[in-house]
Each structure stands twice: as C-alpha cells, then as structure tokens.
C-alpha cells in the first residue's frame, strides 16, 4: 500500500499501530494487512438484517456451524481483532451495516457518508477496519474546506439559526456538528482505507497536536452484502 498523502504512516504490527505518534503532519496510521478467510460468507448470513447489528462473541459463535473453513477463519479474525482493542482498554464495536441513516438537511448533511472528522472532549483516537465491501475513504486536509466556511452554506445556516434561536451561532454550529463536515476542493487528494487494514486516526479534541483525519463511510450499494466493520 502506497500512501496517497503525507498524512498517512504505514506500520507493520498492532503494537506499532497503537504506539506510533501522530504529527507533525501525520494524522492517520495504518496497519496494512492482507487477511485470509471469507468475510463475505459471514455478511451473506446477515443479509436480511435491516438495521445496524452489533456482533458480540455469542453472535459470531452462533454463525460458526453454518460457515465453511474459510468463513470460520474470518470469524476468528473478527474476534481476535475485537479482543486486541479490548485489551487496550477500548470499547470496540463489531458491526454489520446494511446502510447508515441519511441526513436530508439541505444545508450541511451530517451523516457518515459526508466527509467529516470525529470529536471528543478528551484525548482520544478512532480505530476502524473494513473487512468486506467498500472501505472508508480519507481526504487530505489540504484538499478540504469546512462546509461552514462556504459563504452560501454559512448564510443558510445563519438563517436556520435565526429561526431556531440559541445563545450563539458558534454554539449552534458545534451542537449540530456542522463544523465537523467538509467538502472536497477541486482536484482533491482522496485515499481508500482498504479492506483488512486496521487504522488509527486522529480526532479533534482540546490540545490535539494535529488536525483531525477527514474521512467518510462508503456509499451503500443496493443488493450487495452488508458491511462488516470494527470501530472504536
């Protein structure tokens, strides 16, 4: 895997993933992997799920008797990755995602299909891994503009704020997470997170030494198996 941007650091192990430092420009660290096993087989067994499903160890073990050898290898990897993050004191969620909710807001859509950054009140990172289907997509910070900095969009939000009221416009933007969403600039540098790679990406929090990683979920394709994702 060749980085499309200097924002990415590639590492070769989980220990390197958790111990590598962000900065001065790096805000995304990738443990590049080529995983064995058939993850699509697991996803196919969950094809009829309409809502996002959280998969714990019991749910995976319930599927195991219906899996081939390659499917069981994939199941073992899902549980092993989940355990790696648990042992770091994190709260990983292994999810089966048929689709995410769409935001119909015409000013600034705030669903995960929109390029966005994560935010936390204290120091934190986001870990994630896509096991099948399309993967998350990243956007170089230099190739992005906050949607609220577009004059037309900002005026729409000011009109919305005037109708809804509140203590301050900045507070309104933050409360609704409008300030976390970005639009690609012309000729923007985008990159795929890839299938099987585990990522640790920078989050916006007070005192963060780097800009947060801008990313989004892949578009949902009707008729395709649900997405298997580990996120923490």
Provide a compact summary of the structure.
The chain has 232 residues and is an alpha+beta fold.
Plain-language structure description:
The protein is α+β, with helices and mostly antiparallel strands and 232 residues long. It has one domain (8-143, 185-231): Jelly Rolls. 26% of the residues lie in helices and 20% in strands. It contains 6 helices and 12 strands. The protein has helices at residues 14-19, 39-45, 57-63, 69-87, 151-164, 169-175; strands at residues 8-11, 28-31, 53-54, 93-97, 125-130, 137-139, 144-146, 182-184, 190-192, 198-202, 214-216, 227-231. The protein has a 7-stranded mixed β-sheet with strand order 1-2-10-5-12-4-3. A 3-stranded antiparallel β-sheet has the order 9-6-11, with no helix packed on it. Strands 7-8 form a two-stranded antiparallel ribbon. Helix 1 (14-19) links the parallel strand 1 and strand 2. Helix 2 packs across helix 4 (69-87). The longest helix has 19 residues, at 69-87. It starts with 7 loop residues before the first strand and ends with a strand.
């Amino acid at each position: 895997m060749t980085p499309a941007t200097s924002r990415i650091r590639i590492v070769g192990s989980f220990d390197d993933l958790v111990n590598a430092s962000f900065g001065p420009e790096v805000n995304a660290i990738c443990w590049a992997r080529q995983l064995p096993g058939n993850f699509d087989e697991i996803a196919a067994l969950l094809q009829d799920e309409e809502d996002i499903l959280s998969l714990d160890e019991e749910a995976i073990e319930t599927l195991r008797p219906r899996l081939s050898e390659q499917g069981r290898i994939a199941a073992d990897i899902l549980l092993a990755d989940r355990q790696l993050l648990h042992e770091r004191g994190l709260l990983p969620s292994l999810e089966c995602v048929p689709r995410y909710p769409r935001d119909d807001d015409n000013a600034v859509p705030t669903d995960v299909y929109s390029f966005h950054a994560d935010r936390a009140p204290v120091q934190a990172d986001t870990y994630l891994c896509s096991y099948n289907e399309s993967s998350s997509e990243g956007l170089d910070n230099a190739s992005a503009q906050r949607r609220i900095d577009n004059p037309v969009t900002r005026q729409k939000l000011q009109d919305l704020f005037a109708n809804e009221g509140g203590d301050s416009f900045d507070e309104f933007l933050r409360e609704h997470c409008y300030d976390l969403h970005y639009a690609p600039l012309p000729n923007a540098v985008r990159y795929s997170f890839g299938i099987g790679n585990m990522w640790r990406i920078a989050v916006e929090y007070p005192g963060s030494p780097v800009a947060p990683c801008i990313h989004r979920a892949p578009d949902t394709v009707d008729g395709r198996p649900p997405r298997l994702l580990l996120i923490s």
